[in-house]
Every structure is written in structure tokens, then in C-alpha cells.
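Hi Y.,

Following your request, here is the sequence exactly as I used it, all 187 residues.
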Amino acid sequence: MKRLPSSRALSSGASTSALTVSHMVATAMATPHMVASQEIAETAKTWWPVFAPPPRLTVSQWADDPKIGRQLSPEASAEPGQWDTSRAEFQRGIMDAVSDPLIEEVVVMKSAQVGWTEIINNIAAYFIVHDPCPIMVMQPTLEMAEGWSTDRLAPMVRDTPSLRAKISDAKSRDSGNKLLQKRFAGG
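Below is the corresponding structure, written out as C-alpha cells. Let me know if you'd prefer a different format.
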């Protein structure tokens, strides 16, 4: 590859003038391999976002996002529609601690009827949609697990488009979607 004279050589009266250097650059840009490189660069600009990792979100940020977040089902809420963590602000810290990679264990002392099932639903949905990995939700009895799957999880999957896209319909024979086991990419 031929080197261009340094800027010092150009300014000290070397035989190559600034006009000639700009002409050389323009000629190099017009060569076919450079045109192909520019086309590749333009194509890469349009495809690059596909390869970019998803944005870092906490569980509460994911749940609150109106485009991809959690939708409350009529069966689970007196006010169905978009989840809003600010309605029960104390839940934010619990949910966000679960998605913090520096926290290994979350212990919660709580009373009854404080939205614990909805916190668990948001956490499960977050890891299915945003950060896929194997997860296990345990209930005290088999009957309670079946009830949670039927009454809470199934309506949440049905009403949240981002979840519905990840978990196949239970009616198809080979879906991997059973009452007590849900299969999804990455999980």
C-alpha cells in the first residue's frame, strides 16, 4: 500500500499539493472495492441493531414498559391493562433485587395480600421474555401449583403479547406447554 506524504511534507512545499491529495482520496473512494465496502457499511448499519444485546432493564422497568411489559388480566385484577409498579411502590425493590446480578439471594418478610403473586408473575415473565433462562416457580402443594398455572399464569400469557410470543399455545399437541411445565427458547 502506498503511503501518502505526511502533513509536514505537504506544508513544507513537497511536490504533492493539497489538491492532488484530495484528488487521490476521491479516486480511491470511487474504485469498485471501496464502493462495495460502502454498501456493506450501509447494510451493516441497518442490520447492526439486530445483533445488539437487549437494553438492560430491571424487572419493574420491564413490567412497566407499555410496549413489551406486563398486562394485567381481568381474572387477576379489578383494573385490567398495563401493569404500573407505582401503584404499589414497595414492590419495586423486591422485583429489582431479583434482576440485579450482584444479588444472589432475596429474602422477603411480608404479610398476606400484598401482591406477592403478582411480583412472582412479573419475575417469571421477565425471565421468559427479557432474560431467558431456566426458572422454577414452586407452590406449597400440587393443587396450588395447578391453580396458579391455570388461574394466574395462563391469563397472563394470554394477555401479555411479549409472553404469548414466547410460549406456544397449550392446545397444540407438540407445544411443550403443559399445565405444570412451560417451554420457551432459552428456558
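The helical segments are 7-11, 18-30, 32-51, 59-64, 90-98, 116-129, 142-159, 161-164.

Thanks again,
Q.
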